[in-house]
Design goal:
The complex is a heterodimer of chains A (about 160) and B (about 750).
Chain A lengths: L7 E8 L2 E8 L4 H9 L17 E4 L2 E4 L12 E3 L12 H8 L9 H14 L5 H7 L11 H11 L1
Parallel strand pairs in A: 1-5
Antiparallel strand pairs in A: 1-2, 3-4, 3-5
Chain B lengths: L22 H6 L14 E7 L5 E7 L1 H5 L3 E6 L10 E3 L4 E3 H8 L4 E2 L5 E7 L2 H8 L3 E6 L6 H4 L13 E3 L2 E3 L4 E9 L2 H7 L2 E9 L11 E6 L5 E5 L4 H12 L6 E5 L15 H11 L3 E4 L2 H7 L6 E9 L5 E13 L6 H7 L8 E10 L13 H19 L3 H7 L19 H10 L1 H4 L9 E12 L4 E9 L5 E5 L7 H13 L6 E5 L16 H28 L6 E4 L2 E4 L6 E3 H7 L8 E8 L5 E12 L5 E11 L6 H20 L30 E6 L21 H13 L10 H8 L1
Parallel strand pairs in B: 1-16, 9-11, 14-15, 18-19, 22-23, 29-30
Antiparallel strand pairs in B: 1-7, 2-6, 2-8, 3-7, 4-5, 9-10, 11-19, 12-17, 13-14, 13-16, 17-18, 20-28, 21-22, 21-27, 24-25, 25-26, 28-29
Helix pairs in contact in B: 3-7, 10-11, 11-19, 15-16, 18-19
Classes of the chains: A alpha+beta (about 160), B alpha+beta (about 750).
């Protein structure tokens, strides 16, 4: 890896509905592209090897660990992050449920969980508890024991 | 003189579940954690780390790295200020700044894998990492030791040659034994001689990590006036300041620490790791420097809680009375002294009344990261030994182990293993709650074909701490109140603090706007740790609110032209003692303050010696696949005396989170060490923490025995929940397969081995 090389990739991408035109260093992860180039720090870094899910974002409707995707790869794609979940009308029902059910303690995993849970409910409106637990198993939380997170997702279904 | 309080029940705010004040920022991604810090001209710092667990540094050549374009500063051990070897009180434990400094940046010897040997600041992380690879270090690799047995052998390599060990008050040199403590009460030998049932067992636990999802981080500036500013994810801005100033050898007033939002700590974010290094890089580069630790380094160089070897012996009389207990425990300290043998001694026998006890504890250096507190440090280890041994004693004597726990439960006046006598505690009440609870009375149910089920129960204890806290209040003219308090908020504590204030003032929880202050905006406050925050900082908030009422009474006296002593305050309204009809509400008064003397402010500070002890009991149902050894927790209930739950949802959350960390510790988590001192599983893939898929819902029972030491009866709740799970699961596994496991983790492999 030659980090001083000028090779940057021209990327046109839609992030939370807004088009961005960027020059992304070829080695830069989507996570750092969001956090460092665009300033969207809601997507969190936990491990940089795809095992904690704190950096979960949606690319063309599919959830991914943004630390394992290059910024250059999202050319022409739609990226959705936690910052895009609320609207001027208010919070997304999952965000509201996380607050009401006390589903976060430190909150560092929360953006990843919210984006992942939205990815589930967008495709499966009524998942079982087992399905929710299976789907969210790629997101680590060390504070809550997951109890209130699963309940918050269930609350949105009910 | 310690103030005591009568329990109350008629609360308006306490016991409700308002949405946390910082919640909106945290579900929308707006909250600023340490890693999110941005400053104009910010550059990145990275560490160069040792690939060896134990080695002499022969030479370091940083010239190629320093010459790289985009590199602004390179430092090594030679750039570290030389701190004297002296113990300094850090509130919760002591610190020796020489070792604390050496832990962050090696001098001439590396003591654990990942030990920093140099640091680099460059335009961005990628450039800094590339420069780090250009640093050439020549090592003379030494033999390493990674467990307490090897470390105490006569020919063991000595990790800190200048350390003088303390063996029951005697100095010892040329040793890895940092300390040996003993507590002994009663007639241990006589009690064993007259006991009708005795057992002696050995239990071993591997080192585990706190596993917070947010890596350590620090952002620093160092200006021309030698003023150092630090932004960091810390469990305590003030104790962080003490450490940073001590390691950098500057006065504390030179250092301003601003605590950012923090992504989990569990004790592991009490020590500083990056902050002084970021500051030195900032000084050398004359730029703001940010560092974020890579996950491998989080495992290899921060946090863990001690692995342990424990030998325990219990004796009981023919009537099932536990008459005697002795234990010998060896804890891994890591590469600097400081394993938690003191707390272990305080906790081991706490759930029981035992007339004759002895505990010997050894603090032992090994070539692993220096341990840090992890949720009730030392207690889960000894609870695993004690609660397993209690079940084994009962099995051997043919007694019901739950009845045994009830019959021997500690109570007010019981002497703890280190000699302290308990004040009002709730162990008996928790066990009564077990009898009533649904889980304990429900059948285990039939296991599916090829599987077996078992149920286990275990107690746990943490003493909780008080210490120093500060809070400031200021009334806004719209009837709201600004609260600035010194405890960093890791799990919703800001809201609990606001609720303390709101309850006193008779206003809503959301009429109080809480802020976590930096070290220049609020008085000294100890760490968010020791289960002290809601107890001690809540107490300070309560005091500040009462002091504010006094300030406001003066204003009401001006308004009505009466004496302040003639003003009463109840349920959010000020009244005149002379004229019952005269009344003004808090909010209305707030609107008039500009004409009554201007801003109304108050402070509250506490320094609390004791805190009120925390007891809990957990019930675990496990299902084990006989073909693979895989286990599933199928039902779990955590019961605990929580004093008074200020915000019950966050109290439940503490119980659930602690229980699940304990479940991970019991079943999967460990530092898997290679012979050369390398941790083989330093990623979240291989260090297997519980996921949603591994768990059921975690039921909680909040037993409320109000703590007389706190105005609302609060007891610390955060740490006790991690103490019972390992033993509860060990007891459940024994119940399921008929064989007892003596070592953690009790993973599928070891269960399968036990099934053979």
């Amino acid at each position: 890896m030659t980090t001083n090389s000028p090779s940057k990739v021209h990327v046109t991408t839609t992030i939370n509905g807004q088009q961005h035109e960027l020059l992304v260093p070829g080695y830069m992860s989507l996570l750092d592209t969001l956090r460092e180039l665009i300033g969207l720090t809601g997507t969190k870094e936990g491990c940089l090897d795809g095992n904690c899910g704190a950096c979960t974002v949606s690319v063309d409707g599919r959830i991914v660990d943004s630390c394992l995707v290059l910024g250059a790869e999202v050319n022409g794609k739609n990226v959705d992050t936690v910052e895009g979940m609320a609207t001027p009308e208010g919070l997304h029902p999952l965000q509201q449920a996380f607050l009401e059910e006390a589903a976060l303690q430190c909150g560092i995993c929360t953006p990843g969980f919210l984006v992942a849970a939205k990815g589930l409910l967008d495709n499966e409106p009524s998942p079982t508890e087992g399905r929710i637990r299976h789907w969210l198993a790629g997101n680590l939380c060390r504070c809550t024991g997951y109890d209130k997170i699963v309940r918050a997702v269930q609350k949105v279904i009910d | 003189m310690v103030a005591t309080f009568e329990p109350k029940t008629d609360y308006k705010v306490v016991g409700t579940r308002p949405i946390r004040h910082d919640g909106y920022d945290k579900v929308t991604g707006r909250a600023i954690y340490g890693g999110d810090m941005k400053l104009p001209g910010l550059i990145w710092g990275v560490m160069v780390r040792s690939p060896h667990a134990h080695a002499n540094i022969k030479s370091i050549d940083t010239s190629a790295a320093a010459a790289m374009e985009g590199v602004f500063a390179v430092i090594t051990g030679a750039d570290m200020p030389k701190a004297p070897s002296k113990l300094v009180d850090l509130g919760e434990g002591n610190i020796n700044f020489k070792w604390a400094s050496n832990k962050l940046m090696a001098d001439d010897k590396v003591l654990y894998r990942g030990h920093p040997v140099a640091a680099i600041a460059a335009t961005d992380r990628y450039v800094a990492e590339e420069a780090a690879r250009k640093v050439v270090v020549e090592y003379e690799v030494l033999e390493s030791v990674t467990n307490v047995v090897d470390a105490l052998k006569p020919d063991a390599p000595i990790i800190l040659p200048d350390m003088v060990g303390d063996d029951l008050g005697e100095d010892v040199t040329n040793t890895n034994m940092a300390a040996h403590v003993r507590h002994e009460f009663g007639d241990v030998e006589g009690a064993f001689a007259s006991a009708s049932h005795t057992i002696e067992r050995e239990y071993n636990m591997q080192m585990v990590h706190q596993g917070y999802i947010e890596p350590h981080n620090a952002t620093a500036t160092w200006d021309e006036e030698d003023r150092i500013k630090i932004w960091t994810s810390t469990q305590g801005a003030f104790p962080a300041r003490t450490q940073i100033a001590g390691i950098l050898q500057v006065d504390v007033s030179r250092v301003k620490v601003t605590p950012t939002e923090i992504g989990g700590g569990f004790g592991g974010k009490i020590p500083v790791y990056l902050e002084p290094i970021a500051a030195l890089l900032a000084k050398k580069s004359q730029r703001p420097v940010k560092m974020v630790m890579e996950r491998t380094a989080v495992f290899e160089t921060t946090g863990p809680t001690p692995g342990a070897r424990m030998v325990i012996k219990l004796g009981a009389d023919a009537n099932g009375k536990l008459t005697v207990a002795t234990s010998d425990i060896w804890f891994e300290a890591g590469a600097n002294p400081g394993a938690f043998i003191g707390p272990a001694a305080m906790c081991i026998y706490a759930p029981y009344e035992i007339a004759n006890t002895r505990i010997d504890g050894w603090d032992v250096l090994v070539n692993k990261p220096k341990v840090a507190p992890y949720r009730a440090p030392g207690s889960p280890q000894v609870a695993f030994a004690m609660e397993s041994a209690v079940d084994e004693l009962c099995e051997e004597a043919g007694w019901d182990s739950f009845k045994f726990r009830v019959d021997n439960a500690s109570k007010e006046g019981t002497r703890r293993g280190d000699g302290v006598l308990f004040s009002k505690i709730g162990m008996q009440e928790v066990l009564e709650a077990v009898k009533e609870c649904d889980h304990w009375n429900a059948p285990l149910g039939d296991a599916p074909e090829g599987k077996v089920r078992g149920r286990g129960i275990a107690n746990g204890y943490w003493f909780n701490i008080g210490l120093k806290s500060s809070a400031n209040l200021a009334v806004n003219t719209d009837g709201t109140v600004q609260l600035t308090e010194g405890s960093t908020d890791i799990g919703g504590s800001r809201t609990s603090m606001a609720m303390h204030v709101a309850e006193v003032l008779g206003i809503g929880a959301h009429d109080v706007r809480p802020t976590v202050g930096d070290t220049e905006s609020v008085g000294y406050t100890d760490v968010t740790g020791g289960s002290r925050t809601t107890y001690a900082t809540g107490y300070a908030c309560w005091l500040a609110a009462n002091n504010l009422v006094d300030v406001l009474k003066d204003r009401v006296a001006v308004l009505w032209d009466i004496k302040p002593d003639d003003v009463d305050f109840n349920d959010g309204a000020f009244t005149s003692k002379a004229e019952a009809a005269k009344s003004i509400g808090f909010k209305e008064l707030a609107g008039k303050l500009d004409d009554l003397g201007g801003p109304a402010t108050s402070t509250g500070t506490v320094d609390l010696e004791s805190a009120g002890d925390g007891f809990g009991t957990h019930i675990a149902d496990i299902e084990i696949d006989l073909a693979t050894g895989k286990s599933d927790i199928i039902r779990y209930t955590a019961l605990q005396d929580v004093g008074t739950a200020i915000h019950p949802a966050y109290v439940e959350g503490q119980l659930q989170g602690g229980a699940v960390q304990g479940i991970g510790w019991a079943l999967n988590e460990e530092y898997y060490m290679q012979d050369d001192g390398k941790m083989a599983n330093s990623s979240f893939l291989d260090y297997r923490m519980p996921t949603t898929l591994d768990l059921p819902f975690i039921d909680t029972v909040l037993v409320e025995v109000p703590n007389p030491l706190h105005p609302y009866g609060v007891r610390g709740v955060g740490e006790t929940p991690i103490c019972p799970p390992v033993a509860a699961i060990a007891n459940a596994i024994k119940d399921a397969i008929g064989t007892r496991l003596y070592n953690t983790p009790m993973n599928a492999g070891s269960i399968l081995e036990a099934l053979k």
